[in-house]
């Protein structure tokens, strides 16, 4: 294969581009994970995580994908046959439901249309009907990466409270954490699930659970089998900065650096940056005359935008042309929206010119793929960003 010059544009909604500072931080000799130097690193990253999840309670860090952290949230809190209420926001919510089924839970899925986020009213109404409190947990994806719709977690919390329901509240923030404002404590979330490879700007390989007191209490009575995922062993070792088994030491070096970068920029500025890039993206999309998949403006995702291609056109063909001609990867349409949408990831270590390069690649690709569109979407985004 001929060499392609310059950096590949990895504009999928995760894994995201890893900044040089993080790559340098990871490029270290691995140390003794039972030694004093490690304890310092362990304590620092565990404390950093509390700031990022905006919580005062413990955060668990697994050497795992996000999928592992999904499983851990369920196995540590629930028992076989427990009912869990889940919301079909899109493909990732569907995958989480699949895990619940395989674990022997009884998920109930509130149907969604893949163009809206989780509906607080529908969740509240279902809980109000559950007079005997058979539902043990409500599980929601904060930012549905398949659709680019972001659920309003604070409103869902209020709906649970208004129904006076004791269910645990679990939220997947894998593609929103450190990109879109998220408040574990303030929003009364019991288990927050995270992953390293999206807003946190790290390579894949770390999974997170942030815990509330209520989640810890539930874990005492939970009867689903767990060993590797057990919070107990983690928490007793974490107290001293250690882990019960070999942690992903070098990824933790990266996590420490990535956290420093987020705090140097300021989390609020990080969120504002993502909001602005998402808005510039939608301005380009509207100018092209294409349609954003998410139909509710207050649910527009700030970390990715899913875009519909007109009927009779194949989004994957467009993606292939863009990869081939401009060395840029865009997100594919998943499951129900396969071939119908492509997704632009605008999260992580990302600035105005990264976005303009990305949009230019898309606009040129639309031309090459003969997708009807109005030229000048990049210019419209420039006009917005250059103000
Ligand atoms: C990426 C993603 C996952 C899956 O994470 P893996 O690390 O691939 O297991 C789960 N949920 C959401 C919302 C995601 O974006």
Quickly list its features.
three-stranded antiparallel β-sheet; 2 domains; alpha/beta; 15% strand; binds pyridoxal-5'-phosphate; Aspartate Aminotransferase, domain 1; seven-stranded mixed β-sheet; Aspartate Aminotransferase, domain 2; 387 residues
Walk me through the structure:
By secondary structure, this protein is of the alpha/beta class. It has helices at residues 20-26, 36-53, 66-77, 91-102, 120-129, 153-162, 213-221, 231-238, 249-265, 267-288, 315-326, 352-368, 377-385, and strands spanning 9-11, 59-62, 83-87, 106-110, 135-141, 143-144, 149-150, 168-172, 191-195, 207-211, 291-292, 304-308, 328-330, 341-345. It has 2 domains: 9-16 and 267-385, Alpha-Beta Complex (Aspartate Aminotransferase, domain 1), CATH 3.90.1150; 20-263, Aspartate Aminotransferase, domain 2 (3-Layer(aba) Sandwich), CATH 3.40.640. It has a 7-stranded mixed beta sheet with strand order 2-10-9-8-5-3-4, sandwiched between helices. Pyridoxal-5'-phosphate binds at residues 14, 65-67, 92, 141, 145, 172, 174-175, 195, 204.
Biggest β-sheet: strands ordered side by side in the sheet: 2-10-9-8-5-3-4
Supply the number of structural domains. Answer: 2
Mean pLDDT: 98
Strand content: 5-15%
Bound molecules: pyridoxal-5'-phosphate
Largest sheet: 7 strands, mixed
Low-confidence stretches: none
Order of helices and strands: EHHEHEHEHEEEHEEEHHHHEEHEEHH
- End-to-end Cα distance: 42 Å
Briefly, what CATH class of the largest domain? Alpha Beta
- The total of beta strands comes to 14
Alpha-beta content class: alpha/beta
Give the overall shape. Answer: globular
Q: What gyration radius follows from the Cα positions, in whole Å?
A: 21 Å
- Helicity level, as a percent range? 40-55%
CATH topology of the largest domain: Aspartate Aminotransferase, domain 2
- Number of helices, counting only DSSP H or I runs of 4 residues or more: 13
